[in-house]
């Protein structure tokens, strides 16, 4: 059991060590800046009350929060993992050779994959998906306006329909035709803008017609005679998708399960924490699409009787700037070039992320063929989404717990993701809020895989609508209905800085939904202050009074410290509300009117090669009437 003693069934949160801390603190400590939205305007700040545990519980229920759930953490040790329903073992379409090219419908599975009430649907503010698109590459890309126009294989098109994807998002509009052309690709688009489907749909579609020819021999797992012990093969994936976290691997695996429905393409998730034996069993039942975390993938590459990379046709690196970070250098090198990987010219490489500092963009180029495409949606790599309202509150370090409590009690109850920077802080915050009757759960990297999967499941299903997490959860997570992200601690510039901030707040305000991101700021966050102010201005959010001195003068340019300004081309944005578009920089507003920006300006020095007979353009996004709502 991980060091978290306060939430076993026996103690059930009553009388936990922090039970009266809020009372003693005498209020939240949120500085009153006259902000109408802040919890400080509440006359009756809940943390000022001196209540018994039962009264705190009653108060939380009265505020509309659901009942809290006690966890028996010992059960995870007792179960030992064997009987656990691992997310990676979730049901998928199983194949029989006699199906021909397309398998029959399986209504129960279809319901499970596509009918889930927890699957995200696009929100009412879809038009706020940024529509300014910059494209560089060897040839012009004709964007698709509808999935119907993309020339997708009918099974994939049907799966897209079953997912409820009616319109293409801007990144899908450009990335799908680029991938269908067969070129390498680096794609940058805001959080929650549909990047997963942007690579999954065309990749699988390209394989569909040729699956029978390309796939390695596999057992007929749908056959009643199939025996997993006897009918083992070596996994020979055609597609490898690499992601930095286990949770993201499970999520992408879910998307792959949906998109592979009725196809003979078999997805497998391989991530740390899931028992190796279990993963190997799954791989040896056949694997065409492998979704993996880098460490587990490298381990598996060392088991040639289980996995060979010799058939891989597509290598996709999601959250690519994170994967290009020094921490992953060795693994990434091995994955991109090492082992027995297919080095044929038809091996296509892709990298996707919402943030892509200049240094990472340069490194990405080393892995791409010279004729690669670069697509960027939005003005600047790392821009926050306009559907996210960002608020910054001044909160001193010793008052943070009370401030979170007050904020939750003052907010409309809804799925809330709370970030702390350290694992002990996550445990303490969970304990504190839970003991005040709030339905919390928590996740961090010291928890066992079973605990992590359960915490996430409880959050997704709404059983525990408040999740406290470390930055582990910042990237890629796509949970339906996160209305509020609270950053108790801001990421320091040593640990991801403003890009990490953008990923964290990007867990809300996804795919046309609006969300609120509240962040606590104090003197310890001064290193991030200028970047934060720049981002607030860029996103047209209010800069609080205590940071107002960092605002540039009206109309002045803001330099984003984008890692490497060595060539003097930092990304720029016009300052002040309604800032003017400037051809030397990148405009903040969606270019629905086709406003021109200097070709490739936002890519800084990365434009090399594109000008030589290639195609370099700020494409804008000129919506066809049918999708003019963008
Ligand atoms: N065309 C579409 N129409 C409606 N919903 C879509 C469409 N494409 C994707 N989605 C949904 O949008 C949500 C966000 O997609 P996804 O997780 O791929 O975003 P992302 O751009 O990768 O975000 P992040 O940068 O945070 O990882 C998912 O729930 C996905 O199912």
From TrEMBL:
Single annotated GO MF: ATP binding
Biased composition (Low complexity): 584-606
Highest taxon above the source species: Eukaryota
Motif interval(s): Q motif: 145-173
Keyword Nuclease assigned: no
Enzyme class: hydrolase
Keyword Hydrolase: yes
Catalytic reactions of this protein: ATP + H2O = ADP + phosphate + H(+)
CDD domains: SF2_C_DEAD
Residue stretches of biased makeup (Acidic residues): 560-570
Annotated segments matching region Disordered: 13-35, 557-630
Entry-linked PROSITE patterns: DEAD_ATP_HELICASE, HELICASE_ATP_BIND_1, HELICASE_CTER, Q_MOTIF
Domain Helicase ATP-binding stretches: 176-374
Keyword terms of this UniProt record: ATP-binding, Helicase, Hydrolase, Nucleotide-binding
Residue span, DEAD-box RNA helicase Q domain: 145-173
EC number per UniProt: 3.6.4.13
Similarity field: Belongs to the DEAD box helicase family.
Designated name of the protein: RNA helicase
């Amino acid at each position: 059991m991980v060091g978290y003693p306060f939430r076993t069934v026996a103690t059930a949160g009553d009388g936990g060590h922090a039970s009266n801390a809020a009372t003693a603190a005498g209020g939240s400590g949120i500085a009153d800046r006259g902000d109408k939205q802040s919890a400080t305007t509440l006359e009756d700040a809940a943390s000022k009350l001196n209540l018994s545990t039962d009264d705190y519980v009653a108060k939380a229920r009265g505020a509309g929060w659901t009942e809290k759930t006690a966890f028996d953490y010992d059960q995870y040790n007792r179960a030992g993992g064997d009987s656990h329903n691992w997310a990676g073992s979730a049901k998928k379409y199983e194949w029989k050779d006699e199906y021909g090219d397309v398998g029959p419908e399986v209504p129960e599975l279809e319901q499970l994959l596509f009918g889930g009430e927890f699957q995200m649907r696009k929100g009412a503010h879809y038009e706020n998906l940024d529509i300014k698109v910059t494209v560089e590459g060897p040839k012009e890309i004709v964007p698709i306006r509808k999935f119907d126009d993309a020339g997708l294989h009918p099974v994939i098109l049907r799966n897209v329909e079953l997912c409820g994807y009616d319109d293409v998002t801007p990144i899908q509009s450009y990335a799908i035709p680029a991938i269908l052309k067969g070129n390498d690709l680096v794609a940058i688009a805001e959080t929650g803008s549909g990047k997963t489907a942007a690579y999954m749909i065309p990749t699988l579609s390209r394989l569909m017609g040729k699956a029978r020819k390309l796939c390695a021999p596999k057992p007929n797992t749908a056959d009643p005679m199939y025996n997993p012990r006897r009918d083992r093969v070596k996994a020979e994936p055609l597609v490898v998708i690499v992601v930095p976290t286990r949770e993201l691997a499970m999520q992408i695996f879910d998307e792959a399960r949906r998109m592979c429905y009725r196809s003979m393409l078999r997805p497998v998730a391989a991530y740390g924490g899931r028992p190796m034996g279990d993963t190997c069993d799954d791989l040896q039942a056949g694997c065409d699409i492998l979704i993996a975390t880098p460490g587990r993938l490298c381990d598996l590459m060392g088991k040639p009787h289980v996995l060979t990379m010799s058939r891989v046709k597509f290598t996709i690196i999601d959250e690519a700037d994170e994967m290009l970070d020094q921490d992953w250098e060795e693994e990434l090198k091995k994955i991109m070039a090492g082992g027995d990987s297919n080095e044929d010219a038809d091996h296509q490489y892709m990298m996707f992320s919402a943030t892509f500092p200049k240094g990472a963009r340069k490194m990405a180029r080393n892995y791409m063929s010279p004729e690669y495409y670069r697509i960027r949606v939005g003005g600047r790599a790392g821009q926050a989404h306009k559907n996210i309202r960002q608020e910054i509150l001044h909160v001193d370090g010793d008052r943070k717990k009370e401030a979170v409590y007050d904020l939750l009690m003052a907010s409309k109850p809804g799925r809330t993701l709370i970030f702390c920077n350290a694992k002990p802080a996550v445990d303490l915050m969970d304990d504190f809020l839970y003991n005040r009757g709030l339905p919390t759960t928590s996740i961090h990297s010291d928890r066992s895989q079973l605990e992590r999967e359960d915490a996430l499941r409880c959050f997704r299903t709404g059983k525990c609508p408040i999740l406290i997490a470390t930055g582990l959860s910042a990237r890629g997570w796509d949970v339906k209905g996160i209305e509020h992200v609270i950053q108790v601690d801001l990421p320091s510039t040593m640990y991801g800085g403003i890009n990490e901030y953008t990923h964290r707040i990007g867990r809300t305000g996804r795919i046309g939904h609006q969300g609120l991101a509240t962040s606590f700021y104090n003197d310890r966050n001064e290193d991030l202050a200028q970047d934060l102010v720049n981002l607030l201005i860029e996103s047209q959010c209010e800069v609080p009074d205590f940071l107002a001195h960092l605002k540039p003068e009206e109309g002045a340019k803001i330099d984003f410290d984008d890692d490497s300004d060595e060539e003097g081309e930092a990304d720029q944005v016009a300052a002040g509300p309604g800032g003017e578009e400037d051809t030397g920089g990148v405009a903040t507003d969606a270019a629905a009117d086709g406003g021109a920006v200097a070709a490739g300006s936002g890519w800084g020095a990365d434009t090399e090669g594109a000008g030589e007979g290639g195609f370099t353009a700020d494409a804008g996004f000129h919506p066809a009437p049918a999708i003019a709502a963008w």
